[in-house]
Amino acid sequence: MLRGQRKMNTISYGLLIGLAIALVIAAFTDMRRRQIDNWLNAAIALAAPAFWWASGLELWPGVAIQLGVAAGAFVIFAGMFALKFMGGGDVKLLTALALWVPPYIFMQLLLIMSLAGGALTIVLAGWHIIRGERDKIKIPYGIAIAFGGLWVLAVNYLPANAIAAASA
To answer: What are the residue boundaries of the structural domains of the chain, listed by start?
Structure first.
């Protein structure tokens, strides 16, 4: 096995299914209440070490890199929160997700999240403007974060035979 490469097994796939369910819950709660609950973000973050163990991630440098990426993500997104560009639940969700995926996959997540978030912003802003509610525009960005997370899980972690079977 190459350095940094993860071995996938039943436990690691089960944990990824749990992460996917948590992302769907985050999207729905953000859509309904414009809030991502702290217990959900904590559960995602606290389950990451189980995923590291199940997928055979080494303490050094693997876990250290994951912690570093999460710390960096927190600093950057907390700055965006301070500037009122994003909500606190979004910051915590992105930080928790940074614990799960390698840096290059986290960059994929951010790219897909940004594209989905841009589309979501255009659609919701247009809808509010058409309804004459310009002062009520508030974008539930947890939907875009969850979409990005689900996208990278599907593209990077689904077994190749499951993808081939789905496309046939």
So the answer is: 10-158
